[in-house]
Write a structure and sequence with these properties.
Shape: elongated
Low-confidence stretches: 1-11
Strand content: under 5%
Helix content: 40-55%
Structural class: mainly alpha
Mean pLDDT: 78
């Protein structure tokens, strides 16, 4: 059986660093999967934004974000990119 060069040997999952959408045979997800993926994205945004408010100034400097930028980002609703 031939495997495409994007797969991990012996596995059907893509190699590290390659997004599912980068694969040539990508098909749109069915509605329930899209909905679940959207919920995961929203949850990740919510958690990340909450975490930004808990970082100290030196940590924010390490990631190149000012306190004002962190506060502005944390005030966005979870559905806004």
């Amino acid at each position: 059986m031939l495997r495409n060069h994007f797969s991990v040997a012996g596995s059907s999952r893509p190699a590290a660093g390659i997004a599912e959408t980068d694969l040539p045979c990508h098909r749109p997800l069915p509605f329930p999967s899209q909905f679940a993926e959207t919920l995961r994205l929203w949850l990740r945004r919510s958690r990340t934004r909450k975490h930004l408010t808990q970082l100290e100034d030196p940590e924010l400097r390490d990631i190149g974000v000012s306190r004002a930028q962190a506060l502005a980002e944390s005030q966005k609703p979870f559905w806004r990119p």
